[in-house]
Each structure stands twice: as structure tokens, then as C-alpha cells.
Protein 1
Amino acid sequence: MTRSVPMLDLAHQHRAVETLVAEGFARVMAASSYILGPEVDAFEREFAAFCGVPHVVGVGNGTDAIELALRAAGVGRGDSVVIPANTFVATAEAVVRAGASVVLADCGDDYLLDVDDLRMRLNPRVRAVVAVHLYGQTADVDGIRAVAGPGVVVVEDAAQSQGAKYRGRRSGSLGDVAGTSFYPGKNLGAYGDAGAVSTGSAEIAERVRALRNHGGLHKYEHLEVGTNSRLDSLQAVVLSAKLSLLDGWNAERRRLAHRYTARLEELPGVATPIVRPGNEPVWHQYVVRVPERDRVLAALTEAGIGAGIHYPTPVHLLPAFAPLDNPRGSFPVAEAAADHILSLPIYPGLADSDQDYVIETLATALRPSGVLR
Ligand SMILES: *Cc1c(COP(=O)(O)O)cnc(C)c1O
């Protein structure tokens, strides 16, 4: 009898919204209206209220959301944009796609952009900083703003942080503009690709509305070269249904995270996540640092546990970003993290008994007697 604990259980989420989704899909099909439309308008309003911002614009995916957020904020050719070295590659791609140059900065021991390191990377060409709320914990947006100064746009990469709070404010409302992703595995996930831009600025929102739809707000109006990155009605139905349950799901992730921390901080060699004061993470990932990470990961995999590494290679060491010319050693904290981090299963629907199995398997793998030499 082999036991298995997946990395994520999307079927559990689907069961909770099945009826709402079926009714919504029937509505969309009856109206034969598949792109944008009333379902998208409704979701944009609901997600804006959730984030505490006046404007949300639904787009095709999270990478486009960040690119269009940058472009709409006036960032482009000739500009530099600082992002953390430890992020999903999409953050860097969005900067390049916007026409700007990537400048990397190191992270701190909480895996979030290190404000002191950011200070050293600033130069007159830096027009924006992307604050990546990695693993569901918000970056220090106020600190970033203070260091970067008033001329620099603060863009949030909120792909992993729907519902997270920073000093009482929600992810997506903390910077000048934010891009988020509703890739199926995110805390708020669609049934395909989807994303959104949120902002307090009517001007930025209006420009994203045009950019996502071939550069215009009306048919055959093309004010600038935009793209096709519209949210579709079926995804909006799923997102509205799941949004109504998101706070509960995030509370469940929080409960599981506290359970992990209580047990794992007693294990020698394990570093549990550091949460900055004022932060309420939503635990998109629960990431520990362990010695002999690859061996420990192999032991978990062998035991049927869906653990992972987010991310195994920092941006500057990816072949695609070799032209940045940041050799190994450029971002020591991010590089050391990449060698030792391990993401454990965390999701609404993870049974306590399955979580206990993960904890016990990890404890055994870490015990010297459990090591095969
Ligand atoms: C998922 C993700 C993105 C990109 O979102 P897509 O919808 O996959 O394009 C960007 N940044 C981070 C940190 C992500 O986790």
C-alpha cells in the first residue's frame, strides 16, 4: 500500500464550486458571449473590492498582467526595472517584453526583495521596481518606496499572494499597480490561463484596458500597438465562484502553515519560514531550508509526497538571462536559498493526517540514521 500526498489538490476546490460553475457556464453558453462581457465585468468589480482598489482589468495571464502594468505606467525602452533574483522567470520576461532592461537585486532571509540591496542597484535609469510577493508573503512595499523615491513606479507581482495582507492592506493595493495570475495552481486559480491588473489609478487602468484589446477601447479603434490579452467569460465564472471561498481557503492554508512551523522548528537543521511583522501571508508555498536538500527531496518523492523547489535556479543563472552578465556569486543569498529550499504540500483540503505523514517522513529523512551512505 503506497501512500501519496500531492503538491496540490484542485479537485477539492472544484467540488466546492461545482454547482456555481455549471450554472455560470450555462449562462455564458446561452448568451454565446465568450470574451470579456458581463461575467468579466462582474469579476473585475468583485476582485477590486476584494483587493481594496478602485480598478481591476482582467487579462490573459499573469505574465501579460505584469508586462501591461509596466507599459501602462509608462515603463519601456531605455528604462531599467529592478526585480529580485529569486522569482519565477515570468517576472523577468514581463520586463523584457515591456521593452525595458532587467536589473536584479538579492533577497533577504525571508526570500523577499532586500531593501538594502535594492538601494545599491538603483541608478538614474531605474524607472520601476517589481515587488514580488513570493510564496504568498508581501514584500516590504513601503520600504521599497522609501528607498526608490517618488520618481520610481512600484509594481507588485501579486501572482502568489491573492488575499495576503501587509500592514492591514491587501496584496494588489500596495504599489502603484499590480499584476496577478490566476494560473490554476495559484491561490485563486482559473480553469486555464488568466490574470488581472489592479490599480488605484484610473489612467493606468484605462490604458491597460486598451492595451489588452489591440490598443483600443472600441472596435477598430487602435490608439497604440497593444496585444490580445483578454480575460474570457468562462474563466471569469470560475474566478467569481472561487473568490467567494478564497478567504476561507487562505485561512486553511494559514492553519496548516502554523501546524508545520510548530512541528518543524523543533527539527535540527530545518529553517522554517520567517514572517515579517505586519505581514499576513497566504502561504502559496510553505518553504523550508534543509541540509542535503536533494537527498531529502528524493526521500519525500520516494514516499509519494509531492514536494518541490521554487525555484531551483535564480534568474541570473538561467541561460535565457545569461546576457545580464551576472556571474555566480552576484546574489549570494538567492543562490544559497536555491540550493537549500524545499516546498512542502500546502493546500485547502490537505488532511492533518497527510500533513503528519509529510512531517514524519521529513523528520526521518533528516535523521543521520536515515541516511544511506
Ligand atoms: C505564476 C507566476 C507568474 C506568471 O503568471 P502566468 O499566469 O503563469 O503567466 C508571475 N510571477 C510569479 C511570481 C508567478 O508565480
Protein 2
Amino acid sequence: MVPLILTLLFFFLLSSSPAISTNYEGNALHALRTRLSDPTNVLQSWDPTLVNPCTWFHVSCDSQNHVIRLDLGNSNVTGQLGPEIGELQHLQYLELYRNNFEGKIPEELGNLKNLVSMDLYDNSFEGGIPKSFAKLKSLRFLRLNNNKLTGSIPRELASLSSLKVFDVSNNDICGTIPIDGPFSSFPLQSFDNNSRLNGPELQGLVPYDFGC
Ligand SMILES: *[C@@H]1O[C@H](CO)[C@@H](O)[C@H](O)[C@H]1NC(C)=O
């Protein structure tokens, strides 16, 4: 029989170790990696046997070893972004611009409550802009330009009062442009080159997507 004191010590170490408490973030990142093709080995340092992902290249952590940045801009990465990204609850900066990400933008991104910046521009994302982005109350920068996105701009995004920069230019967005909240100050260039996008919605009219 293991003496009780050893058993207690074991559980104490288990519960107090920062390595174990953040391991889920390493697991989530590793799961993301398995979906991607990485021809120039940018993700080579992503070793899931390490106690946490904080020493991996392109990953940054805070003092509690929680992942707060993912910097994979310009990294020649190809493939789909998996739902695991939504497990990185402490993430503030998601920088995936200028790669070849394809497929849908996961709605799980709406779970990243601390996100300040989401840069997905210059990829091949398709499908709609998730309505779940309306939960990202800290979001200041949302750049989705130069992809293959379709559907309308979710009206729910007008509630994002921290949003300073929004860009969906060069996609295939349709419908009308919201005019409420932060949308009152975005320049029209943010919406350029979406051939099926009509102008700003009309004040006082209930927004209506014309078969969009
Ligand atoms: C991406 O690929 C190009 C061409 O193969 C290469 O020159 C460049 O260094 C790669 N970038 C990275 C970050 O590995």
C-alpha cells in the first residue's frame, strides 16, 4: 500500500504544477499542427512531449505559461484550421496572415474571449464569417481580406465596441454593410472588391439579405 502522505503529495504536485495545468494548450496546438502541411518546417519545434508549448517557435506565453500569441504569418503553411484553436482561451493575438489556410473559419474562434487581434488575411478561407465572432468583446483588429469568404457580414458584429480595424476587402461577401456601432467609422476600402456586396444598409430599414 502506498502511504497516504505520498498519495497526498502526488496529488498536491499534480494540482500545483503549471506544466500540467497548461498542457491542454500544447495538446490543442499539436492537434492543429497535425491538420497542416508545413513544407518549410516552420512548426518543427512543436514538440508535444515538452511540459508546455511556451518554448516552441511562433508561440508566446504569459507569466502563467498560458499561450497568448500565435505568430504564423508568412509561414508557407497549408491546410485547414481545426476547432482546437478554440481551446486557447488566453490567446490575444492570432496571426495567420499570408499562408494558404483553406476551408471554413472555425466558429470555435468565438470562444477566444481575450482575443485582441485576429489576422487571417491573404489565405484561401471560404464559407461565412462566423456569427460567434460577436462574442469577442476585446477584439480590436479583425482582418479577413484577400480570402474566398462568402455570405453576409453578421449584424451581430455591430456589438463589438472595441473593434477599431475591420477589413473584408477582396472576398465574395454579399448583402449590405452594417452601419451601427464600430461600422459607422470603417472606411469603404474595408469592403472593396466584393462584387455582390451592396452599399451600407439604409438607416431605419430592417436589414434584409436579398437571397444572399
Ligand atoms: C517560404 O517558402 C519560400 C519558398 O520556398 C522560402 O524562400 C521562405 O524562406 C519560406 N518561408 C519560411 C518562413 O520558411
Protein 3
Amino acid sequence: MAFLFFLCLLPLLSSAHRYPPSNPRLKKAYVALQAWKHAITADPKNITGDWSGPLVCNYTGVYCTAALDNPSQMTVAGIDLNHGALQGSLPVELGLLSDLALLHLNSNAFRGTLPGSLKNLTLLYELDVSNNQLGGGFPSVVLELPSLRFLDIRFNSFCGDVPSCLFDLPLDALFLNDNHFTFSIPENIGNSPVSVLVFARNQITGTCFPKTIANMRNTLHELIVMSAGLRACIPPEIGQLTKLRVLDLSHNGLVGNLSGTIGGMTSLEQLDVAHNKLSGEIPGSICDLPHLKNFTYSYNYFSKEPAR
Ligand SMILES: *[C@@H]1O[C@H](CO)[C@@H](O)[C@H](O)[C@H]1NC(C)=O
Ligand SMILES: *[C@@H]1O[C@H](CO)[C@@H](O)[C@H](O)[C@H]1NC(C)=O
Ligand SMILES: *[C@@H]1O[C@H](CO)[C@@H](O)[C@H](O)[C@H]1NC(C)=O
Ligand SMILES: *[C@@H]1O[C@H](CO)[C@@H](O)[C@H](O)[C@H]1NC(C)=O
Ligand SMILES: *[C@@H]1O[C@H](CO)[C@@H](O)[C@H](O)[C@H]1NC(C)=O
């Protein structure tokens, strides 16, 4: 009896030795990860099978480093459960992972929304919850994450408006595509320093792309607005985006002429305006773009192809 008791206690003793309770960060992480494990309703790949016991740094998908503000303490700095096929929800206890810098959850089946407690994650730099079943309004907690640079919420069921202050954040990349957002591109879009901006397959309302888009001239490399219900005009200012390499405006309801200023986008490699209602002549300036590899303009009402 006593021997059995000792055997059961052994794993506890050895882990207590490795992570003495003097590390409150890992204790909080333990609480958070156990709560999460309970909120996971299906785990076909048995990813959380080893999520037990206090050695959280050994859990599959959990990565520890020395804490920034106390290098003698280990802390959970990253969680990568990409392609985990996990079902369930994101519990409020995730707010206890206050040293988390990376949270990668793409290609799972998490439902619900991002808990407001995530605002505790002041070091969070990359947040990727793409390809899940999250829903509700725009997850506004992301607006409160001061370190956030990479935000990927594509392929979910978020709906409603996109808050304009999103474009005031110092992000490097923003993926909103394949949701159910209905929004007009706000005037302050030009404040956004992103290099990649993907709006595709949402519903964009409003009349014109703001002229302030020209303010993104030094940073924007990719702009993808395909299948977004755009009926609006594309202002000539777009031609000032001289760093842009990929512009996809296909499968919208764009009308009128294609602006000749597109010929000023000297870095352009891919240009797709197919499946719109554009008319007139294709500006010859497009053919002079030095890096253009693929220009797709089928399914429009262009009267004349550019002469080379
Ligand atoms: C899941 O993983 C744990 C720990 O890695 C293991 O003990 C358990 O047998 C696994 N379960 C299944 C169903 O494979
Ligand atoms: C847990 O991680 C420690 C290092 O932190 C390592 O020495 C040990 O082998 C790991 N245990 C298991 C079961 O993976
Ligand atoms: C936020 O972090 C603090 C400090 O780490 C912690 O005490 C608190 O419980 C956390 N709040 C939430 C909602 O997780
Ligand atoms: C469209 O382009 C044609 C020349 O291709 C020009 O005559 C016409 O004025 C343009 N229309 C608009 C609305 O810019
Ligand atoms: C050019 O782009 C179109 C649509 O963007 C794509 O379908 C096609 O495969 C591309 N062609 C080449 C040669 O890359």
C-alpha cells in the first residue's frame, strides 16, 4: 500500500524538483493549459494527450523561453497548434499566458470568439487563428494588444463591421479574407503600415477606395481585394503604390476605365482585374511595367487590348 502510494507520488516529486513552485509563471500557464484542455472537445491527433502534469514546457505545441523581464525564469512564450484539428473553444484562462509572443492556431475547429482576457497578452506579436470556426463580431480584443504585428483571422465566420482603428495599428500583415465582414474601407486606411493586406471574400460597401491609400506607398507589397463585392471606383492615387508587387481586384463589380496610373506601380509583378465590368481601353502604360509577369483582365468589357 505504502509502496503504491510512493509510486504515484514519484512523478509529482520529480517535476516539483524541475520546476519548483517558485516559478509562478509556469504555475499560471499550467492553470491556463489545463482549462484549455478541458475546453477542447475533440482531439483526433491526440495533441493534448501529453498535456498533463506540471511540466508545461514539455507539452506538445507549447514552447518556453527565459522570461524577458526575468531571464532566470522560464515562461511559456509560444503556442503552435497549427493543423491540430482540435475542436472546442478558447477559454478565458488563456489570459494567464501573459508572456505569450506567438499564438498559432490555424486549421483547427475552434468555435466561439477570442476571449477578452487576451488583452493581458501584452507581448503577443503574432496571432494566427485562421481557418477555424470562430464567429461573432470583429474580435476587438486584438485592438488592445500593443505588441501585435501579424494578425491572421482569415477563413472564419466573423461578421459585421471592421473597426477603422484597426488600420491605425502598427501591423506588418493583416489577413481578414474569407469571413462575413460587411464594411467600407475607412479613410484612415492610409495610416496602416502593413506590407500585406488581404480583404478577399468579404462584403465591401461604400463608394470609393479612399485616396489615402497612396500613403501606403512605402510599405504595401500585396493588396488582395478579390471577390469582395467592390462596386466602387479605384482612385488614380493607387498608382503611387510603387512598392506593390501583387494587386488582385478580380471578381468584383468595378466599372469604368482602368486607371492609366497603374502604369506607375513599377514593382508590380501580378495584376488581376478579371471578372469585373471595366471598359474602355487597357492603358498602354501597363505593358511598360518592368516586372509584370501576369496580367489577367478577362471577363470585362474592354474595347481594345493594348498595343505592344
Ligand atoms: C495520447 O497520448 C498520450 C500521451 O502522449 C498517450 O499516453 C495516450 O495513450 C494517447 N492516446 C491515444 C488514444 O493514442
Ligand atoms: C521534459 O523536458 C525536459 C527538459 O525541460 C527533458 O529533460 C525531459 O526529457 C522532458 N521529458 C519528457 C517526458 O519529454
Ligand atoms: C492577467 O494577468 C495577470 C498577471 O499575470 C493575472 O494576475 C490575471 O489573472 C490575468 N487576467 C486574466 C483575465 O487572465
Ligand atoms: C476612358 O478612357 C477613354 C479612352 O480610352 C476616354 O476617352 C474616356 O474619357 C475615359 N473615361 C473616363 C470616365 O475616364
Ligand atoms: C496568372 O494569374 C491568374 C489569376 O490571378 C492565374 O489563374 C494564372 O494561373 C496565372 N498565370 C501564371 C502563368 O502564373
Protein 4
Amino acid sequence: MRLLHSIITISLLFFTSSVQSVALTINDKDSICAAAKLVADGAWNYYEGFKYGGVVGMFAPPNYWWNAGEAFGGLIDYYTFCDPTNDTLKQWLYDAMYHQAGENYNYIPSNQSMTEGNDDQGVWGMAIMQAVERNFTNPEAHSWISMTQAVFNTMNARWDTGNCGGGLRWQIFTWNSGYDYKNSISNGCLFHLAARLAKYTGNSSIYIETAEKVWQWMDDVGFLTEEDNGNSRIYDGAKVENNCSTVTDLRWSYTYGVFMSGCAYLYNFTGDTIWQTRALELVEASLSYFFANKIMQETTCQPYNLCNNDQRSFRSLFSRCLGLTMLLMPETRDQILPYLEASAAAAAQSCSGGDDGVTCGENWSAAGWDGVYGLGEQTSSLEVIMSLIVEDPISIKTGGSNQTNFAAGTDTEDNVNKNELNITGKDRAGAGILTAIVLAIILGGSIWMIF
Ligand SMILES: *[C@@H]1O[C@H](CO)[C@@H](O)[C@H](O)[C@H]1NC(C)=O
Ligand SMILES: *[C@@H]1O[C@H](CO)[C@@H](O)[C@H](O)[C@H]1NC(C)=O
Ligand SMILES: *[C@@H]1O[C@H](CO)[C@@H](O)[C@H](O)[C@H]1NC(C)=O
Ligand SMILES: *[C@@H]1O[C@H](CO)[C@@H](O)[C@H](O)[C@H]1NC(C)=O
Ligand SMILES: *[C@@H]1O[C@H](CO)[C@@H](O)[C@H](O)[C@H]1NC(C)=O
Ligand SMILES: *[C@@H]1O[C@H](CO)[C@@H](O)[C@H](O)[C@H]1NC(C)=O
Ligand SMILES: *[C@@H]1O[C@H](CO)[C@@H](O)[C@H](O)[C@H]1NC(C)=O
Ligand SMILES: *[C@@H]1O[C@H](CO)[C@@H](O)[C@H](O)[C@H]1NC(C)=O
């Protein structure tokens, strides 16, 4: 594994020095950006778009399409906060994010139908919303805001009252396992996008209504609960059989993040204290469950060394959401910031591994690099470091683009669960073959990782 990794790292290397490590002074922007650059360059080492025959906008296996969406949200922030005059970087980001928009500009590229669930589309939607709020140069024909609206509309149209009283299913496509499951992160992405679109566009009608609908349903179905001690919990989800009554009680940082920051946007926009109360409860719950000695961890799996490749990336989105919450609700800043500072310092000191000397680890409590590496380790470290210098999101009112399209995405068949479409025998056979190919790639990828 180390040998193969070395070959790959060397072939992609941007810098050739031997062992370095990432120095970080937590209250100095230049130091934060210098650290972020090293860590971001480490993330680009996994990028496929530079490789001969590689796909623009994708990272090396075992990273799926969604991992790319998650990564680009953080890399857009990096470009905005730290390196806004770097036109090369800007072009990489623009090409990657536009290339993956799909045939209908709604982040459902047809060749991802074997992997894409509602949460995957939602996380890409968050990256595109990040481009919107960072005033990232718009494509001429399809503005970032209109594409985010398309993501929102296609997701919202899949709201399924046929089971469990509502909610989005995990999967979009019937043939993917998990189609019979409803989960909090998919619904959280819809909630989160609704909140940000309300604030950005200043148009509350559909967006606030949707946010309320999702929150209410999460509560009804028991995915969102309150313990006797007042501690909020957000559980993973449930199978639709038995009306979602058997809830899988696992908790993930990014799910807390999307709901918490969604509440913060809603409170900031509406001034309705119900959202303030909800945000504060989730801040409390997040800080108490996903940190040990103020150092961020993916508590459900990390202490047991059981996190899979996806789970090892969740802290990137979680960090981004904590940073946004702190801005939109300044009253939470004193509470959140010490946790982000301690975590950023711990993450930076973990970035001392690999052949490049700046590969980040998973266990930030450990002294130095813990030997784990991957895109998730890089982007989680990157985003927690950058959360210390997070900048205000813009909105139309404060000078953002008003190239909205409230109906974007409503005119395609992508806005229904794919079981409601007429899938012909030929399509099914095609799907089977694709599944086999994808499985082969995934298995090949993981064998390569384990080997
Ligand atoms: C532009 O950004 C990339 C990615 O961070 C970096 O490798 C490169 O050195 C930057 N270019 C300049 C001129 O700073
Ligand atoms: C999927 O489609 C994109 C264009 O949308 C293309 O560039 C890419 O090569 C295709 N294949 C994969 C595996 O992404
Ligand atoms: C507000 O959103 C609705 C769709 O929900 C749209 O029809 C309307 O044009 C929007 N209003 C403005 C002022 O943008
Ligand atoms: C199914 O669950 C939903 C959400 O909890 C609830 O509103 C509905 O009454 C339940 N339906 C049945 C038949 O139990
Ligand atoms: C709303 O968010 C902005 C940051 O984007 C912040 O400056 C402002 O104080 C917030 N408003 C309230 C009422 O908290
Ligand atoms: C992470 O590092 C800390 C400090 O060295 C250690 O106590 C803990 O057991 C480590 N966690 C894992 C899963 O190895
Ligand atoms: C965006 O433009 C529409 C149409 O010109 C206008 O109705 C709306 O008020 C604008 N939105 C904002 C927030 O200024
Ligand atoms: C956003 O970018 C546009 C085009 O470059 C520019 O005109 C506008 O002033 C920018 N808005 C903000 C808030 O920076």
C-alpha cells in the first residue's frame, strides 16, 4: 500500500520536499492560509481531472461522485478566503463544478445513476450554493443560483407521502440499495438548501414552507428527538417498512451540521425565535457529542477505528456548517470558536504524514500523523482550519447575482423518484451491466486500498 501510494503521490506531486508539517497560528490569517494551501494541495493530489483519461470533477477511487461535491464546497471557500487571484485554481474549480452539472443542469448526471442518492445531489447542491454565496464567476447559460434552485426543486418534488407520512428516500433510483430507506441527511440537505435559498433570494414563499415541512416531518417520524436532559439528537434514518418505525439510532456530524446551520440561516433571515432555539439546541448537541477535549471527532465510528471512506470525510461539511452558524448567529461565536480553534490546531499538527510530509490524519487527538490518509482527511482538516477565517455569505440584497430561476428543474423527469418512470427491460439490463462494472471498479478500488 505504501509503495503504490508513493508512486501515485510522486506522479501527482506539486511539491517535492521530504518531511515537512503544517504550522498553524490560530489567530493569524496568513498562517491559516499558508496551512490551508498545503492541505488543499494535498487534496488536489487525489484529483483525477489532471490525469490522462481522468474525469474532470472527480477524485480517485474509493471516492464517489458525492465526495467530489463535498470537496469542492470547501475548495471554493479556500479559493475565496485565501487565494482569490489564482486564476489557475479558479479555472480548475469552475471546470470541475460545471462539468458535473449533468445534462439538465441539476446535478443528476446520467452516468452517476448507479451511485447518486438524494444526499449526494444535496451535497453537490451545497457546493453550488457555496459558489453562489461566494460570488464565484457564473457560467453564462446557467447561473449557479439557478442550478441550486434546480437541485432544490428536483429534490423537493421527490417528497414522498406514500410512506412514513412524508420525507425523501435515501436513493433516487429504485435499483440502488437504500431505495427502501429514508434518511436524515437527505432530508437535511433539502432543509439546508431551502434555508439558504430563502436567505439568498429574499423570497420566503416556497423555501420557508419547505424548511418547516422537513423539520416537522423529521420530528413526527422520530429521526429528530429530544432526550429527557434536553439534548437534541438526529438519528440516521429508517426503512420504510412498518412506516419508518424502526429507527437506526446512529448519529453523524454532517447531519447535525446541515440542520444546525439551516436553522441559523432561517433565524438570521426570518428573526423567528423558534429557529434560534432549534439552532442553539443543535449547537449544544453538536459540541457535546462530536468533540473530545474540544477536538472534533466522528464519534459514532472513529474511536473504534470503524469509519469508512465516506464517514472519514463528514467533518469537512460539519466544520463548514459550524463556521456558517457562528457567522449567521453571532451569539454562538464565543461558544463554538474555542472548539474550532482547538480542532484546527490539532488537525494541522496531524498533517505531517506521507511522502509529501503534509498528509493529514484521521485522529487529531493523536500526536502527529496517525497513518490514515485520504481525500476525507485532507478536506476535513482543510475546512476546520478555514472555519477560523470564514467570511459572510452574500445574498442578492448585498450584491449577489439575481440570475434566479424559481422554476429551474421542474420541467424534466428528474424530479420524480425513478420508480415512477417507465423503466423498460432494456434500461434494466443496461443498469445491471453498469452495476457490474461499477461494482468491479469499487471492488478494484478497495482492493487497491487494502492491498
Ligand atoms: C494556485 O493554486 C494551486 C492550488 O492551490 C496551487 O498549487 C498553485 O501554486 C497556485 N498558484 C499560484 C501562482 O499561487
Ligand atoms: C460521465 O459524464 C461526464 C460528462 O457529463 C464525462 O466527462 C465522464 O467521462 C463520464 N464518465 C464518468 C465515469 O464520469
Ligand atoms: C418567489 O418564488 C416564487 C416561487 O416559489 C416565484 O414564483 C416568484 O416569482 C418569486 N418572487 C420573486 C420576487 O422572485
Ligand atoms: C406513519 O408515520 C407518520 C410519521 O410518523 C405518521 O404521521 C402516520 O400517522 C403513520 N401512519 C400510520 C398508518 O401509522
Ligand atoms: C445575520 O448574519 C450576518 C452575517 O452574514 C450577521 O452579520 C448578522 O449579525 C446576522 N443577523 C443577526 C440578527 O444575527
Ligand atoms: C486517538 O489518539 C488518542 C491520543 O493518542 C488516543 O487516546 C486514542 O485512543 C486514539 N484513537 C484511536 C481510535 O486510535
Ligand atoms: C431580483 O429580481 C426580481 C426581478 O427583477 C425582483 O423582483 C426581485 O426583487 C429581485 N430580488 C432582490 C432580492 O432584489
Ligand atoms: C459579484 O461579482 C460581480 C461580477 O464580477 C460584481 O459585479 C459584483 O460587485 C460582485 N458582488 C459582490 C457582493 O462582491
